């Protein structure tokens, strides 16, 4: 099965570089290139890619809003945000908008290919601990939000599992902590994603912070 990728970046040189790396692999192909967020949304709708490589800073519709529109459209495409800084504040906004992870533009070719494959499978590209550190840095000054109404649909056990996901625990660690089987934890995670309308585990970590279940650590 060939994984289809849309590359969205306003710099032709960047798009060309990514295309060369991606098209050199037998199981990957660049289905289209977008020069701005609006075109990225359109191509995602028309070409139905598996993964979108999305630059944040683009003219017109930026990558964050484009990511939000793709996520709200119900597209199965997963978005990887491209950034020049691994602690860029825009990364958090993109993750909240529905991105499944972020990549540095100077990523090595082999790492880019692995990231695309992992993300297409629905696996977490970002280690939860890495994501937690990013969220900690940029949410320290954010007022603690009141739990939104959507959490009311979770059972007490599901809220507990979501909290532990936000604390960067793996399924195995959660299972040990709660004395459950890993299969049961996976079932709880599936239910959490469905009830909260989340796309993957990365989104669950962000939700745990945004819902106030996990609070940013102080420096």
TrEMBL record:
The record's listing under Pfam families reads: GerE, Response_reg
Keywords for this protein:
DNA-binding, Phosphoprotein, Transcription, Transcription regulation
Sequence ranges assigned to domain HTH luxR-type in this UniProt record: 147-212
Q: List 4-aspartylphosphate occurrences by residue.
A: 55
Q: Where is the Response regulatory domain?
A: 4-120
Name of this protein: Response regulator transcription factor
What is the species listed in this Swiss-Prot or TrEMBL entry?
Streptomyces rhizosphaericus
